[in-house]
């Protein structure tokens, strides 16, 4: 895997880039498990997290799909609704172990491009907004494609609502979203969540917290030893 960033010889922080989508339940679970891993990681204060855009369905409409999730899943995988509902219940039970409430009966799938643009706008509040958007969609049953919902979420985490609405009304940060997605393709990322630690170590899927903790330890060792700092690297702004 090519590194998405070039780290200098005096790096003292570990960067974790995470590709995910708001409508991905495993991404929400993965976020919580990473937080659990960081809670016992000695260098957690020196870890920076960047949320990267990944649209599971770029063609999804702006208007939420009213079809129940179990019916959608059954149609997609050509199974019966009872089987699909059981699969969703299993995911919800797993999420509950990580203290998350997934309400598949409330979820209203829709386009997430604007949400990803807003996450780029959020800057230092990106993590807070990501959490709020996950909860809005996964638990509260709000439409993640609704710009009023997005602006309200932004305001709730301390962002200026008028500025957020201004972003949503135009096309600002569209290039950044497309850049994230182009980089994902370049790196061979086909599923989310995908964690890239130190620009080199990739972990795919919502792995258990202890495995993510092990990845953090390995990546930190790479940063300290300089293993993750040598050689050229490419990022969305070019190569160095």
Structure description:
With about 240 residues, this protein is α+β, with helices and mostly antiparallel strands. It folds into two domains: about 180 residues, Glutaredoxin (3-Layer(aba) Sandwich); about 40 residues, no CATH class. Helices cover about 50% and strands about 10% of the residues. It is built from nine helices and six strands. The strands form two sheets. Strands 2-1-3-4 form a four-stranded mixed sheet. Helix 1 packs across helix 9, helix 4 runs antiparallel to helix 5 and helix 6 runs antiparallel to helix 7. The protein is globular, with a radius of gyration of 18 Å. The relative contact order is 0.21.
Large-scale geometry: globular
Structural class: alpha+beta
Task: Kindly report the name of the CATH homologous superfamily of the largest domain.
Answer: Glutaredoxin
Widest beta sheet: strand line-up: 2-1-3-4
Order of helices and strands: EHEHHHHHHHEEHEE
Q: Regarding CATH, which class of the largest domain? A: Alpha Beta
User: Which blocks of ≥5 consecutive residues have pLDDT under 50?
Assistant: 1-9, 230-240
Gross CATH architecture of the largest domain: 3-Layer(aba) Sandwich
Q: What percentage of residues falls in helices of 4 or more residues? A: 40-55%
The percent range for strand residues is: 5-15%
**Count of helix runs:** 9
Number of strands: 6
Average of the residue pLDDT scores: 91
Q: What distance lies between the first and last C-alpha atoms, to the nearest angstrom?
A: 16 Å
Radius of gyration: 18 Å
